[in-house]
Specification:
The chain has about 160 residues and is of the alpha+beta class. Helix content is about 45%, strand content about 10%. The structure holds FE2/S2 (inorganic) cluster. Pfam families: 2Fe-2S_thioredx.
Length: about 160
């Protein structure tokens, strides 16, 4: 149950209903697990264990197998993500131009590790492969906004935009 829910839990049920419909749709489809997981990720923003248990029962697939499949794809997450996703490119061009310094500063400023979400649920910090904007290296993206040619000292001011 989502404790931060603003609707008394109604949306939680609605989301589960949507998931059940998708499960029904893919129940007899070979390889139907992946599209079901995709839908859950889209609906919840991550893969809640309770919902995976429903998938396990309905599709008759052991939980261990579901975890194994989901862990293979970086798209899937087992934890809720923050309101804003910060992605720092660690592709070659960005790495050479100091992307690791950006990550180190973000970890310090936000008190969070790469791949984790801040305690207030505001930011999730991720390291990614080339974002296709190497001319702007080092590149960081927050939500949809791209920040290029930045230094670690730019980080505090950028984060202020999200206060
Ligand atoms: S290496 Fe970072 S955008 Fe290409």
């Amino acid at each position: 149950m989502n404790q931060n829910c603003c609707c008394g839990g109604k949306c939680v049920d609605e989301r589960l209903e949507k998931v059940k419909k998708v499960i029904e749709e893919y129940k007899t489809v070979k390889g139907g697990l992946i599209p079901v997981l995709h839908k859950i990720q889209d609906i919840y923003g991550y893969l809640p264990e309770d919902v995976l248990k429903v998938v396990s029962q309905e599709l008759n697939i052991p939980m261990a197998e579901i975890f194994g499949v989901a862990s293979f794809y970086s798209y899937f997450s087992f934890e809720p993500k923050g309101k804003y996703i910060i992605r720092v490119c660690l592709g070659t061009a960005c790495y050479v131009k100091g992307a690791q310094g950006l990550i180190d500063r973000l970890c310090k400023e936000l008190n969070v590790e790469v791949g984790k979400t801040t305690a207030d649920g505001k930011f999730t910090l991720e390291a990614t492969r080339c974002l296709g904007a190497c001319g702007l290296a080092p590149v960081m993206v927050i939500g949809e906004k791209v920040y290029g040619r930045i230094t670690p000292d730019d980080i505090p001011n950028i984060l202020k935009e999200y206060e």
